[in-house]
Amino acid sequence: MRHLPPLNALRVFEVAARTGSYTEAASELGLTHGAVSRQMALLESWLGQRLFSRSGRRMVATPIARSFASEVSGAFERMTAAAEACGIPDARRILRVNAPVSFAMRWLIPRLDLFHAAYPSVEVVVTTVSTVHEDLRGGFDVAIRRGAAGAGSWPHHRATHVLDDVDTLIMSPSLFAQRPLLDPADLEGHRLLATETRPGDWIDWLEAAKLPHIIGRPRTLFDHFFITRQAVMDGIGVGIGPLPMLDIDIAMGHLVTPFPHIRVQRTGYVALLPKSTEDTTPSTGFVEWLAREGAARQHQLSEEQAS
User: Fold this and answer.
1) For the whole model, what pTM was predicted?
2) Domain range spanning residue 298?
3) Which of 26, 55, 86 is the last residue before a domain boundary?
């Protein structure tokens, strides 16, 4: 067998030598500066000589490293060309998407048939995280997280806004039939259900409903929203939920929104791609599709509120 150098370290080395900066290489590859440094140390250990030397605050490739990088870059280009030539043109591509549980269950998965109809050659594999603040580590092509898409918010990723998050009051049809909420003041005496991962939902909604005197009332707390949602559907109490992700439950009659006009705007969701992702990949097509779906639903919500 050939005695090959560590291939991942070679990939990082090629980018670092080409960009002339560990920092720029980290940004292009979606890695930390420390991860790039460790890969370079691994490759230098394998080769038995230094590839970069410090010049001020920068790590500069040595003359032999620049020559080596040219050979490595050419080898990668030849491998890419060979793979494209030997690949099956109509083979399905796997797209790995990582998203918060509630977003995956209530928004993404019910719409995947629409994406597959538009992109039949792409197979989406969904994995979930229990919190929107989960670290962005490898193992997926697209990550969905709560946050803004502004410059600097995600230094190692390209962020695209895909969905707004608007809170309103939710309850089960059976509980509404037993103890209807016809006015916000009717909330007195109802059990309030809250979620640890969505802090402040009740406080903000009660202020919007002009019911600040209820803010101090005790609430039954669950660790994640999908548990709170199930408790609401079971008629245990009333909760606060995001309208876009509850469309299906409302349409199927599993939930009702007694005061849909009383809404609280929340930080929405963004789709994150490594900065090195090319614009023609299935990942970018998926993100563009997500953004269109989210924009269409937001337009519908705006029209409903205006009417």
Assistant:
1) 0.64
2) 91-307
3) 86
User: What pLDDT digit, counting tens, does each position of 193-215 carry?
Assistant: 999 888 889 999 999 999 998 88
Into how many domains does the chain fold?
2
Domain containing residue 28: CATH number: 1.10.10.10
- Residue numbers of the chain with a pLDDT score lower than 50: 1, 132
| Statement to judge: residues 175 and 289 lie in one domain | yes
pLDDT at residue number 1: 46
Residues 111 and 222 both lie in one domain? yes
CA distances from 225 to 26, 245, 294 (A): 35, 11, 20
Q: Are residues 123 and 242 in the same domain?
A: yes
Residues facing 125 on adjacent strands? 96
15 and 153 inside one domain: no
Cβ-contact 222, 192 below 8 angstroms: no
216, 171 in Cβ contact below 8 A?
no
Six-digit token string for 268: 């929405």
